[in-house]
Amino acid sequence: MSKVYLVGSGPGTLDLYTIKAMRLVQSCDCIIYDSLIDNHILDYCKDDCMKIFAGKRAGTHYLDQEQINDLIVECSKQYEKIVRLKGGDVYVFGRGGEEGLRLQKEGIDFEVVPGVSSALAGPAYAGIPLTHRGLARGFQVVTPSMQNNGEETIDYMRYLNDDMTYVFLMGRAKLPYIIKRLLAIEKDHQTPVALISNATLPSQQTITGTLKNILDKFNENPIPAPMLIVVGKVVSLKEKLDFYENKPLFHQKLLVTSVGQDHTLKQLLDESGADITEVMTGEIQYLNNPLPDLSLYDGIIMTSQNGVHAFMQQYFKQYDDIRQLFGIDFIVIGKKTANALKQYGIKASYISKGNSENMNIELSSLPYQRYLIVQLKDIQSIHKLHNNDTYYDAYENIETDIAITGHYNMTFFTCASSVKRLSHTSVTFDKAISIGPKTTEMLRICYPNCCIKETNKPDKKLMVRLALEDHA
Predict the structure, then answer these.
(1) Are strands 275-286 and 390-399 parallel, antiparallel or unpaired?
(2) Contact criterion met (CB below 8 Å) for 372 and 392
């Protein structure tokens, strides 16, 4: 039997989805979504999930509400689990009640999953508490609207209480009228007002003023819809409580290049407040190359986590258990490579804290007679120390199509191949953050006029620190 979930997506940012909402998006067979969502949420759907756009914005309706209701009913006849994904909260000016009543009438099983309303999250992300002792004892949320005949539907006299905060949703087009009506009822013209655009997103913008001057400020710097209007004394707290727009890289556009499914760098940057785009420049593919006779080596060199996993995958294809590695020491670059090795019950005998160049220097002091060097195909970053050392190609980095354009304040590179591949696109940027010498060398070849910041060891946390220090 099919079931429809009316799911609130929250104010915009994926960070504010509930756990249940995310779980339903990942498992549903059909998703019907609005325009006021981050389309990246669709990347979390199953490959075979049917994705249907049913967006509405003021003045533009892709489908009207009755058509949406019909669509939900029709989809319930075709799919087992349907998610109707709505902006904000389902029942806060989202017409979710109408959809629920239609489903109830048709005898279709449904469930409501609340979302964080933009009426709550928007002011919070702008540093404005809706209630505060001594300033506001409560709040009211409304949508400014007119009847079809143009008559007023709101009695503005109800907004005279200065102990309340008033939040107008979807009010950009009616801002002049709202201000005019509030002044007409003789609400104090010094009452603080905030206009919040694209609340909770990296593109968020806020204008503050009073009833007397907010229109002039808006006309000087018009901000786009969707826009919230907050009226009340609590707006005066914005400067002290504004955590979001004061984040270190707020309004900075960052491009993060990645290879494979390693999203560590983007995750580390997420708290910076930046507008982050991640692009995959390559995929990791483990090779099926037979391992040589391991008894010939007393040291195996691993330079990356991918090398560890590719080697061990091939190892267990050839051997039943781990005992064939008895008596062989592992020499690795970095703690993350060592931790990857630990997953197989193997402790690294030596961990280099630097990069491949540091490792080449350090190897001469180690007491091993013959090395097996596990590497990315054809990339011999570790030099042979003995004539009988052997390179083993464990994996390769396969180029992917890069469909991206635009200009960025900073671009982050964790390998030279990403630099070379991105240089074939029209992407431009002011500054590059490089993870090491080889990446920097490629940057100087492909982007000779670019400002480059390089870490002193291959650590993604250091890349983030460089970006923060540079922008400070």
Answers:
(1) antiparallel
(2) yes
Q: What whole-number percentage of the chain has pLDDT above 90?
A: 85
- The angle subtended at Cα 356 by Cα 378 and Cα 398, nearest 5°, is 35
| Element at 50 (helix H, strand E) | strand 50-53
Residues designated as active site: 34, 56
- For CA atoms 372, 375, 379, 383, give the dihedral sign: negative
What are the pLDDT digits (tens) for 295-336? 999 999 999 999 999 999 999 999 988 988 999 999 999 999
Tokens of 73: 């009913």
Q: Which ranges constitute the DSSP H helices of 232-323?
A: 238-241, 264-269, 305-318
189-234 pLDDT tens trace: 999 999 999 999 999 999 999 999 999 999 999 999 999 999 999 9
Residue 394, judged by CB atoms within 10 A of its CB (0-12, 13-18, 19+), counts as: buried
Closest CA to 316 of 336, 291, 284: 291
What tokens does 205 get? Answer: 């913008």
Are 347 and 322 within 8 A, CB to CB? no
Of 220, 164, 230, 165, residue with least CA distance to 197: 230
Tokens 């635009």 correspond to 406
